[in-house]
């Protein structure tokens, strides 16, 4: 993948000083190519309130919405202790197996929270052509199957969900309802 990074001036600086800093070479966009072992996907923030019927909402998001992070155009701000950066990512080539690490957990001062958002994804024929850069093209096999935290048994065709050391049968219709944080 290509990673484009641009350093941002401190937001409290006057506009004139920001404009001057943006002319410096350290504030220009830099691009590096990097290999990856997995893609980290960011979930939208879960809603804080109940819906109009006073029932809890379980939010859902399509896989391709959170994969937009890797389209080469979507920018996200990353903050460190001293500096802020604007980054965007562009997939150039895909490996034979793709691992998604879904960021479900956030820490605050007191505890770790789990985001219950369900990621809707197709079980078969996952097509990522639109997320690859045009000049590199698509690998020989444009569709992958399956994409899920459960795995199918080659002999029986049954699906199994893997959670730590526990393996259980699961219906194919239930696969997309899992709150997985790793999908292969």
From TrEMBL:
Gene Ontology MF term list: cysteine-type deubiquitinase activity
A Pfam family this chain is assigned to: UCH
EC top class, as a word: hydrolase
Keywords attached to this entry: Hydrolase
Signal peptide (residue range): none
UniProt domain Peptidase C19 ubiquitin carboxyl-terminal hydrolase: residue ranges: 70-135
Catalytic activity: Thiol-dependent hydrolysis of ester, thioester, amide, peptide and isopeptide bonds formed by the C-terminal Gly of ubiquitin (a 76-residue protein attached to proteins as an intracellular targeting signal)
Entry keyword Transmembrane helix: no
InterPro entries attached to this UniProt entry: Papain-like_cys_pep_sf (IPR038765), Peptidase_C19_UCH (IPR001394), Ub_carboxyl-term_hydrolase (IPR050185)
One of the GO biological process terms: protein deubiquitination
Name by which UniProt lists this protein: ubiquitinyl hydrolase 1
Source species: Pedionomus torquatus (Plains-wanderer)
């Amino acid at each position: 993948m290509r990673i484009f990074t641009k350093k941002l001036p401190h937001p409290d600086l006057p506009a004139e000083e920001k404009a001057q800093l943006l002319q410096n070479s350290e504030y220009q966009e830099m691009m590096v190519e990097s290999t990856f072992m997995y893609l980290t996907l960011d979930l939208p923030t879960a809603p804080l309130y109940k819906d109009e019927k006073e029932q809890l909402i379980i939010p859902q998001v399509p896989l391709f919405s959170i994969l937009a992070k890797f389209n080469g155009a979507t920018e996200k701000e990353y903050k460190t202790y001293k500096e802020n950066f604007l980054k965007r990512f562009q997939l150039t080539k895909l490996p034979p197996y793709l691992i998604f690490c879904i960021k479900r957990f956030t820490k605050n001062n007191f505890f770790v929270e789990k985001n219950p958002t369900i990621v809707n994804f197709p079980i078969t024929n996952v097509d990522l052509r639109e997320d690859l850069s045009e000049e590199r093209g698509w690998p020989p096999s444009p569709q992958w199957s399956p994409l899920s935290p459960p795995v199918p048994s080659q002999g029986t065709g049954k699906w199994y969900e893997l959670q730590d050391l526990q393996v259980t049968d699961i219906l194919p219709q239930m696969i997309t309802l899992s709150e997985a944080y790793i999908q292969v």
